[in-house]
Amino acid sequence: MQLPFTRTEFFDVFGTYNSALWPVALALWLVSLGLVLASARTTEPRHRALSALLAVHWGWSALAYHAMFFTAINPAAWLFAGLFLIQAVAFAYSGVIRGRLRFSTGRSARHVLASALVAYALAYPLINLAQERAFPRVPIFGVPCPTTIFTAGLLMVATPPSWGIAIVPVLWSIIGGSAALWLGVPADIVLFVAAALLVISLATRRPPAA
Questions:
Q1: Residues sharing a CB contact under 8 Å with residue 180, sequence separation 6 or more, in sequence order
Q2: CA-CA distance, 84 to 78, in Å (whole number)?
Q3: Beta carbons of 28 and 59 less than 8 angstroms apart
Q4: 41, 127, 137, 163: which has the fewest C-beta neighbours closer than 10 Å?
Q5: Distance between CA atoms of residues 103 and 108, nearest Å
Q6: Does 120 have pLDDT greater than 90?
Q7: Can you give the C-alpha Rg of the chain in angstroms?
Q8: β-sheet bridge partners, residue 103
Q9: How many DSSP H helices and E strands does the chain contain?
């Protein structure tokens, strides 16, 4: 696989992104952690708030990462930005405006695995920092890969199960996971796991009868 940029250029983008926007990335992490914890403590999660959070994640990755920074080294980032914006709109329309996405809590194997993905996404910055990479040239939060892992976990417990809203997360799991193998980002290998679990979850569940 031939990439249009070097490994050094790839991590330089994170350095620029983090130096400029780390306060927002930290705020997004804190809000995500708080909302996940609040939803986990109740049998009735904050459905619209979680959908809005996912819309913000995908919109932020589209504009603040892909469009503003990644396009400097990869022209395909404009396409990625478009896909991520479509995903943001999908969450905003289906989950926030129409209120169709409902998130459940529970102790089933699916819920446990989903929770593990969400926890991993929240721990993603620390995992990368622990792998002997110095801030700011390290992927932290608000970038595509942890966003995708976080999303996969939530979609595993979302109803109705929808292939349409899962297409972009699964697609990015393949793109980001493949790039991780070439660029040396071990934390992103979990993207393949996230995609597999999400696909299995969708394939083994049926939408509720109308």
A1: 145, 186, 187, 188, 189, 191
A2: 10
A3: no
A4: 41
A5: 14
A6: yes
A7: 16
A8: 158
A9: 7, 2
User: Does position 207 have pLDDT exceeding 80, yes or no?
Assistant: no
pTM over 0.85: yes
The single residue listed with the structure tokens 């040239």 is 137
Q: Check if the beta carbon of residue 66 is closer than 8 Å to that of residue 84.
A: yes
Amino acid at 6: T
Residue 190 CB-density burial (10 A; 0-12 exposed, 13-18 middle, 19+ buried): buried
| Tokens coding 24 | 């927002």
Q: pLDDT tens across 29-76, in order?
A: 999 999 999 988 877 778 999 999 999 999 999 999 999 999 999 999
Q: What is the pLDDT of residue 1?
A: 60
Q: At what angle do helices 190-203 and 163-183 cross, to 10 degrees?
A: 160
Count how many residues are written for the chain.
210
Nearest to 165 by CA among 122, 77, 119, 103: 103
pLDDT tens, residue by residue, 80-116: 999 999 999 999 999 999 999 999 988 999 999 999 9
